[in-house]
């Protein structure tokens, strides 16, 4: 369980990193916290020629307020988001999600951008940021573009990232003071990947009533229907309907578990 | 005890001496040891569960770095043979690298040598093994049917051994008012010690020995087995266990990888190291716990057991491991299934079944965890049938204290204790009445409360009387310890057992301190090295404190006599007028310290008496308890759980252990053993399973798939000690190393079923996962 031979570069800035990532004579992978890529390297599931370490790029490690958004650098660690040392706009929701990711040693190294780029459907940020209505800013040889979370995660380990692109930033819209956040994931033990995730944001002043069912072997299922927050029968009907056409359609037990996860997330926002 | 307990003697809560290095990350494990010119190994392992090997494709440039069984056989290396003398046992031969046939996924088929492990893995990735796949046995109940594919072709069937215990219970079966039956299963597991297996082999040119530095529990046994495989005298082999990071049984055997490393070190005349990685462990060492029971209990209207009958199968995997063999586990089921209970009619048939899985290895508790899981479910089933509290039925069936010592239905000789009292104390400690009231009220979050109990007794430190009957490659006899007073009045102890987490460097020092009064800081334990210690079968079966601790006490007492003799001479007193106390020999008001006596023997011999013992202040003493049928510690575990009926998840709300270890040498070490065992038992109960697909592929190969409890899943365990000394051992100690891991699956199963009872649902197999619990609920709803 040792990685195959690879080269390693740690450029000083994003431009240098992008130049290395666009080399087409080599198989190149960006690496930040290495909490998913590391095991894959050691299991030899991936065998890149070159790893480009983006974990310390100054352009990717900041957190700032930009108008009505919080802008989080892609290489910001879960631990930093957990610790709350930034001008939060989510009433503690980001910190709460971060605190539930794996174990602290994983959070000390793992990054928000790395998690999104890896795109494991069971990952916390994949569901949570979708429910928050976040978007990601991608940097590549052709410049920058912004993609909403809803269009970024395309499938299991599949994203809108094009060759040579990295995630530069995550933009999270500010919650109103009246916003309520609900998040429930089904795990058998601390640190385990989620079996089913419910993530919901109810923010009436902004007209947001978004429910997300995650960990479904595909992109998170987004439900924009305010009635699911108030009507349990409606909630179950809509969820069952969406799950019936999802990748877990053939697994009644899994469908039920996902419905429970959603119901419990919604229960958190209903006083 | 001759002397009252001192601050560091028997019974003292002394902090572990070894923790200074272990907790600071300064231990020295196989992986920490490197030698000049060392090469590392990577094994090519079978990708399929059952196949004939047609050949290997090895790139020409790596020809000199890759070896197969053909190379080893040509050098005269012999397969591992672990034979049992029990009648009907079928012998398997396990070549260190597969010989023309593979029998489980992960079996070593070739080995690659390089300067680093990564480079060795680079080579291994280029080796192609050409195989003809064969039909596979993945399930023990299928493997015993006629026509099942044979794991070993020359056998008549896939059964290593069938045993039959007890007689007909037809009379009871025909007349008993209560009859309950269950199908019960435990899953195949891995032991996952924190440190994986590791071995560093080198040829010591000066000593003219092959030196195997290995993470082993049994250095002397590995030495014997290795010499047999290499075809050399044992004098040419030295086995050293450095710091070892947990064993639990996985390090209690001669491993094929050890044979390969030793052979290559001799062949290449280079140090050779292999360290097991976690993936290798989870695949090739998925080797324990898999039992199946078809079991029926008979009782009267009050729940008094009248009889028990069972057929039990153990999935023993593909080969018989050295030295414990493929049949220890199943044969043990037959002899210990009656547990701590007193009843008169018993029949049990057991099968050690060969399948295409890794060879079964005894894991902490050995068969007891499965046996307790089965038996304790039956006690609860009987209680349910007669409409009584399970703890009452349990307490009434246990061997009562007035019958101790007691020979049970299978001739197990229970030494001492009050088994029913452990149940009563557990009922009080868990607060059963409060939980019953809460069950009646219901939970605001919809979860369901359950309380479960499980009682067991643990035979430990089995000696010659037990083991000679198995006819396996080792039989424990008199355990020996060597004691040597140093010239400055310290003490060196040498024992053949091996400490891999048990804290023996502290507890054996406490034993010697109890006798001699030498401060434990000045007592040094040497262990785990065949070159430096007396022969021992090693650390297994919760035996070390009873056996080696007893030997240390015996050796210390003999040293005390020699000290008194010299001391009496120096004090000009008669030997019979002296006492050894507080580290000095006293005669009336006069005294001379052990340090002064040691100085006299070593550095001022002109002062010695003419009739001094010429053995000096160094000796080896042997020890066996008065009865070596084993000590019987016991415990009742009580657990309260909340089951989420929507998700099938289980939260442990409280966990109580009421246990009797006899005299405790160090209660903190006992508590540590219990807590660690309970953690592993919770793993067995709720999390751990290696699933196999129909082709025999294990479906878990990382910790993402194979779940073990972490610190957030293990509750605070409340431990209550009862202390009934064993009448047979030094100080009255009993072995307790495994007990913690025995009862949790049974207690948790009973608690979960107590919670599910209003739904009419029941689980009978481990692990009790959310899927299993939800299935049971769905089944009950149909």
Put the structure in a nutshell.
Helices cover 32% and strands 26% of the residues of chain A. Chain A is of the alpha+beta class and 271 residues long. The mean pLDDT of chain A is 96.
Question: Can you describe what's shown?
Answer:
The complex is a heterodimer of chains A (271) and B (782). Chain A is an alpha+beta fold and 271 residues long. Chain A has eleven helices and 14 strands. Chain A has helices at residues 14-21, 37-42, 78-83, 93-99, 104-109, 112-118, 124-132, 149-152, 227-230, 232-244, 252-269, and strands spanning 7-9, 28-31, 50-53, 63-66, 69-73, 135-140, 143-148, 153-155, 158-159, 166-173, 180-186, 196-203, 208-214, 221-223. In chain A, a hairpin with a 2-residue loop joins β8 (153-155) and β9 (158-159). In chain A, α10 (232-244) packs antiparallel against α11. The longest helix of chain A is centred in the C-terminal third of the chain and has 18 residues, at 252-269. With 782 residues, chain B is of the alpha+beta class. Chain B has three domains: 19-27 and 478-623, Aldehyde oxidase/xanthine dehydrogenase, molybdopterin binding domain (Aldehyde Oxidoreductase, domain 4, 2-Layer Sandwich), CATH 3.30.365; 33-134 and 197-244 and 251-285, Alpha-Beta Complex (Aldehyde Oxidoreductase, domain 3), CATH 3.90.1170; 365-464 and 630-691 and 698-781, 2-Layer Sandwich (Aldehyde Oxidoreductase, domain 4). Helix content of chain B is 28%, strand content 24%. Chain B has 20 helices and 30 strands. In chain B, α11 packs antiparallel against α12. The longest helix of chain B is centred in the last third of the chain and has 28 residues, at 544-571. Chain B is globular. Mean pLDDT of chain B is 96; it is low at 1-5. Classes of the chains: A alpha+beta (271), B alpha+beta (782). At the A-B interface, α11 of A face α3, α8 and α20 of B. Chain A: Residues 1-177 form the FAD-binding PCMH-type domain. Chain A: InterPro entries: Diverse_Substr_Oxidored, FAD-bd_PCMH, FAD-bd_PCMH-like_sf, FAD-bd_PCMH_sub1, FAD-bd_PCMH_sub2, Mopterin_DH_FAD-bd. Chain A: Keywords: FAD, Flavoprotein, Oxidoreductase. Chain A: This is Carbon monoxide dehydrogenase. Chain B: Residues 24-135 form the Aldehyde oxidase/xanthine dehydrogenase a/b hammerhead domain. Chain B: This is Xanthine dehydrogenase family protein.
